[in-house]
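Here is an idea for our session: we take a single protein and study its fold together. To get us started, please write out a protein record for me. Once you have written the record down, we can walk along the chain together.
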Amino acid sequence: MKNTNPLSPLQHMVKKPKRLETRLIIWVTGLCVLQALLFGALVYQLTAQSLHSHIGDKALAVASSIASRVDVIKALQNPKDLLAINEEVEEIRQLTGADFIVIGDENALRIVHPDEKKIGKRMVGGDSQAALKGERYISLARGSLGESIRGKVPVYSNNNQIIGLVSVGFLVQSIDPLIRSRSIEILIWGLVVGLSIVVAIYIGQRVRNAIFGLQPDEIARLFSEQNAILNTVRNGIIALDPEGNVRKLNQRACEILDKPLAYTHQPLTLADLLPEHAEFLLRNQSREIVGFELFAADKRIILSRFALQVQGQADGILLSMRPSDELEYLSQQLTKVQAFAELLRVQTHDYSNKLNLIGALVQMGKNEQAIEIIGQESQGSQAQIHNLLERIQDPVLAGLLVGKYHKARELNVVLTLNPDSLLGDEITRKDILERVVSILGNLIDNAIDAAIRASDTRAAKVRVTVDETSKTLLFDVEDSGFGLGPDHNVIFTPQYSSKSGAEHGIGLYLVKTNLDSCGGSLEIGESDLLGARLSVYIPK
């Protein structure tokens, strides 16, 4: 049948890349085998050299001992004593373990030899002449019995004349078993190689688990993709270890914080990037922060913090940031819509109760009381709104105060505007207006909460004062709570909160951040409502 897949031959030709653990096993095993071969060869060579040297010294010592014997000297001078000396030399050979002991005359003719048939014949090997010239040495040569290690010593007469030589030899073939007996060390090394292979397999499995089963090419691809993704997103990303050291920093974060792009390749800490907020961001790292507003690099930044976890263990934090741009403006608009919806819900709930009461009075025939309640409600709300619009000319601030008034009313807190309040002009600078709304909103929310916590002992009240001079905006927020305590510095730290819950603890820090960004200041005092008074001064 004709092959319908034109890529099949090519696919068969392309080899599938080996897995990382397979590579490790091959590399470690190959290295261990190579080490074993080199070690075995080295052990064999050293053992052979050591034994050859030892056997050579022994042969030379035995030859020297025989050459100095009187009977040997006499036998060389008197051939009649050859039979007796041959037997004695044979006994010495057996005692010393030598393979042969040969005595030759001054012409290198054998007069003593283990094989009687070779007596009278010339010594072979070509290494005897130096001994007949007076040298003592060790040689390796092939004789009539085979290749051997020999010790050769000249024999001197009484008048110091060379009359022959003694050759003591050990056959190489008899030494080889001694060398092979040391092969146990090589065997042990072979076992070490086997163990190394097992260890290589274990290491390969551990490495595979540590990198989640990914192969080197997959890791390289993921790393490239990660860099591409981080540098493509429009949010600034900073990944930190628990100590605050920067692990990863994308280019967008450098742009937002006005740092050079070279920072992405340098060792940094969070203090190098956000020195004023580093301490806060590194505290309580398991707590999630979303949409936190701060001022850095001369701009407002919206920052979120998330805990990083690897295999269920805390391993640092991830910071995501973006400047307060058009997207933030849309978010603020959405927030205002939500606030307006909440205001409508509060008013609906309040008016529903009032309508139920009025309906019940009408059914009971109490028309006068119903009309009176309608008049009171209308006059109270209209008076409050009229008072705000008359004294606060900025519609955004007026709307903020109306919303807080209804929120406080739903929580059974009496919120009033100081009759001396007056803000004659609108705040034209958008950046200042946004900061004022954030500052005043947070202060009023904190005052309402403080008044509620003390409502068991006194009436819950909040008073707001808005005023201005030619150069400064002034805001006073007073409450009937328990006050702020003697340590006023700690209350503006991010981790401070007198309330429970993850959403608390950054309100006053936001106030401080916004004040710092617009050059404002804040004073803390005591109110005649028995609680705290916070006075804010903001340059126009």
User: Anything to note?
Assistant: The two ends are 89 Å apart (CA to CA).
